[in-house]
Amino acid sequence: VQLQASGGGLVQAGGSLRLSCAASGRTFSTYDMGWFRQAPGKEREFVARIYWSGGSTFYADSVKGRFTISRDNAKNTVYLQMNSLKPEDTAVYYCAAKAVAVPRYDYWGQGTQVTVSS
Fold it and tell me: Which residues of the chain fall short of a pLDDT of 50?
């Protein structure tokens, strides 16, 4: 699976962005998908996850209620809708894929920069 993230940019605090992650390959619908982020000087952290069927999602506490992960298996794309953005959301955002029942994410996109100004 190859992943291509897009949709990042510069936004003011309180604003919104929607990230997209397009996947190649016919087996996209069999992978769990996740979003992660890495701020300057910090380790990469988990943001959100969606199961292969789209029926279950999970969020980091820091984004719960503000971010929504979704997927369109017909378009081989996963999305991250980010609302009420805060300066501390500034980071490079990565999408990732893992096979069902496998604990680690094996496939990563190249990252897209999100910058939130105060």
Answer: none
